[in-house]
Write a structure and sequence with these properties.
single chain; alpha+beta; Beta-galactosidase, Chain A, domain 5; Immunoglobulin-like; globular
């Protein structure tokens, strides 16, 4: 008997020669010859007369009555079962080749286990029949054990992304489908199945993410037969994928992760893997974005004052947001007319860029290339480039530009190329402010977007790109190879941001997540927050400012300058370390931080998002430290507001304790009022 065994970082993935998945989870060590036979189950009554094996392409004809991996037809004849023809093992990769009985369909499954223990799987289906094959679905599926009896995934809406939701996994299918033409604010994001009660620091979890920026589905299923599975694939419209003879379709990569140490254990695999795909990272500059500072009020004098204030408080990048192009005075017109407005900027953007550079900052620009306003020269001159019928619904007063149309694609690429050639633009904020709403277009639009981004990165390798989609509606590992940053959410309200950043960073390392310091009264929610709370929240990510700091008080500007200084000092740690989150017995109190890879230092935030449940909250127990190392714990940054007759004495001068003491016994907490954050640095003298 032949086994195909991938092992890395405490994870094992095992197939047999028939392509059946025998194990995915904790490392099993070296496998004896008897292992395969030991995995053969009993045959229950009223079932198929051979043991049921879990195939990578489970199908009805093989005895699997759950959701099939492959569905489609040749002129009404369904796809059927694809038995395995060959399995090949090469270092950290398994390739499984399967084909139908008549050899009219062939599938290649590629399986890779990265050094970090992240499993990557995709299918490549080829039509060998003389006629077209209409594909309905092709999902990556993986078995999960019966212990994975609880689900956690996400929902949300604009400015309130990444809302976790938990439920038991019952018999049947729990399916999350996205039909936005982008993942959407309610994206399931990362489907976790685990031992009931799993938390940030404990419990075994089997998780799945689909690296795709268009329509998709991700699901979990438990069968009364005794099997459970998780799966994901592109959500295809009727007739959206028709394979002509010889044509192939490759699924998006499914990213599967096992952790035996809770949700943080997922991040411990995902973050190093994502970082390993990047060249030596550049420090993430402090960004000042003009949107909430000036909106459409553009002039050289107005923005020139903001440039000066940005430099004063320590910003390193100045991003001109919406409103710079011809006729754009509000959000109802001019998308697609990507020419600098001669009325507002008679000398182009050169005078503004010169001021930005003279102040020591680099320059960035907002664009929304996938969209078009009906009130635009582009739409009037090329109505056939607008996706959908003429009377289709608008969304934010705009429509979608058909990037699958070669002429429209070339126009967008040409305009962006001209802008990036004429101006020294270091950064593009790439927005996407509506769903597609046109059936059967998401696949071609998404693949065209990927081609467009790849072409720009090839031509302008030093230009960084941010993925923004009405905030956080397109954050996924499919677009990440093409961008350098995500706009995490359109809200800068720190209370909402604490939740959004906490959960988004389970999958995405913090250096890719833009977090901005907003005005005292948040523009989206109207909630007023203390400056210290806003500063502490924006610190943990790719920090920036979205506030008219030219009109801030001298005291506030001095505090912001001190904060940017601390960010610059700490960003090497914040953007390379291990993200940790404590499981709190009080849902009103959060503790999160970043610990250096060598565990020599750390920075933590103790956050109150509501009124604590007790007069004396639980001790601050710092996770992720070296238990045998001594750490000096000190406070950092602007002091939070407290209600206490006397603080814990250790706060005055700090304290030195071992990592084991700090994790198990902890330190008495200051009595923070709601919506405050206390920051702490931990440094090992040795």
């Amino acid at each position: 008997m032949t086994l195909y065994h991938l092992r890395a970082a405490g994870v094992s993935f095992v197939l047999n020669a028939r392509g059946a998945v025998l194990h995915w989870g904790a490392d099993l060590g070296e496998l004896p010859p008897a292992f395969e036979a030991s995995r053969i189950p009993a045959i229950p009554p009223s079932s198929i007369d051979v043991p049921l094996e879990w195939s990578l392409l489970p199908a009805l004809g093989a005895g699997w009555s759950g959701r099939p991996a492959l569905a489609g037809h040749h002129d009404g004849k369904p796809s059927g079962t694809l038995p395995v023809a060959a399995v090949e093992l090469s270092e950290n990769t398994i390739t499984v080749r399967a084909e139908s009985a008549g050899r009219d369909l062939a599938n290649v499954t590629e399986i890779e286990l990265t050094p970090q223990g992240v499993l990557r799987i995709r299918h490549v289906l080829t039509n060998h029949a003389p006629g077209d094959f209409t594909l309905s679905s092709l999902d990556v599926q993986l078995p999960i054990p019966s212990e994975a009896a609880e689900l956690l995934d996400f929902s949300g809406l604009w400015a309130h992304e990444r809302r976790p939701q938990r439920a038991p996994l019952r018999d049947g299918v729990w399916s999350r489908e996205s039909r936005h033409g982008r993942p959407g604010h309610d994206d399931a994001f990362l489907l976790m199945t685990g031992e009931p009660g799993f938390g940030f620091r404990g419990g075994r979890i089997w998780a799945l993410h689909l690296a795709w920026s268009g329509d998709k589905r991700i699901w979990a299923e438990r069968s009364a037969l005794g099997y459970s599975a998780i799966g994901a694939g592109e959500l295809l419209g009727p007739g959206e994928i028709r394979l002509a003879p010889g044509e192939s379709y490759a699924t998006p990569w499914a990213i599967a992760v096992f952790s035996d140490s809770g949700i943080d254990g997922l991040s411990d695999r995902l973050h190093p893997w994502i970082r390993s795909a990047r060249a030596e990272p550049k420090p993430r500059p402090v960004v000042l974005n003009t949107w909430e500072a000036v909106y459409f009020d553009h002039s050289l004098d107005r923005l020139g004052d903001l440039v000066g204030a940005a430099a004063e408080v320590g910003a390193e990048r100045f991003v001109l947001d919406d409103g710079w192009f011809t006729g754009r005075r509000d959000d109802r017109r001019a998308l697609g007319d990507w020419f600098v407005d001669p009325e507002v900027w008679p000398d182009g953007l050169h005078p503004l860029v010169s001021r930005v550079h003279a102040a020591g900052l680099d320059f960035g620009l907002w664009v929304e290339p996938e969209m078009v306003s009906l009130d635009s020269a582009l739409a009037r001159e090329h109505p056939s480039w607008v996706l959908g019928p003429r009377d289709a619904l608008t969304w934010r007063f705009q429509r979608v530009l058909d990037l699958a149309n070669p002429a429209a694609y070339d126009y967008v690429l040409g305009r962006l190329t001209d802008l990036l050639t004429e101006y020294p633009i270091a950064f593009l904020k790439w927005d996407h402010n509506r769903d597609l709403l046109e059936p059967g277009t998401a696949h071609r639009q998404t693949t065209a977007l990927y081609r467009l981004l790849a072409a720009l990165r090839t031509a302008f390798p030093d230009v960084e790109i941010e993925s923004c989609a009405s905030g956080g509606a397109r954050i996924d590992l499919g677009i990440l190879p093409h961008v350098d940053r995500f706009w995490t959410s359109d809200t800068n309200d720190p209370l909402d941001r604490q939740h959004i950043q906490r959960w988004t960073s389970v999958l995405i390392p913090p250096e890719f997540l833009g977090g901005h310091l907003g005005a005292g009264t948040a523009h989206v929610t109207g909630r007023t927050s203390a400056l210290g709370f806003r500063l502490a929240t924006a610190l943990f990510g790719h920090a920036g400012i979205e506030w008219d700091v030219s009109r801030a008080s001298p005291t506030d500007r001095a505090l912001i300058a001190a904060w940017t200084g601390e960010y610059k000092r700490l960003r090497g740690l914040l953007h390379s370390g291990v993200v940790v989150r404590a499981d709190s017995p009080d849902p009103a109190v959060l503790l999160h931080g970043v610990v250096a890879q060598d565990r020599s230092s750390a920075v933590f935030a103790l956050v109150t998002i509501g009124s604590p449940a007790a007069a004396l909250p639980p001790p601050i127990r710092f996770p992720g430290l070296d238990p045998d190392r001594t750490y000096r714990v000190r406070t950092l940054g602007h002091p939070p507001r407290v209600v206490q007759d006397a603080p814990p004495p250790w706060l005055a001068d700090g304290v030195e304790l071992t990592g084991r003491m700090l994790a198990e016994a902890g330190l008495p907490a200051p009595l923070l009022v709601p919506e405050q954050a206390a920051l702490f640095t931990l440094d090992s003298p040795g």
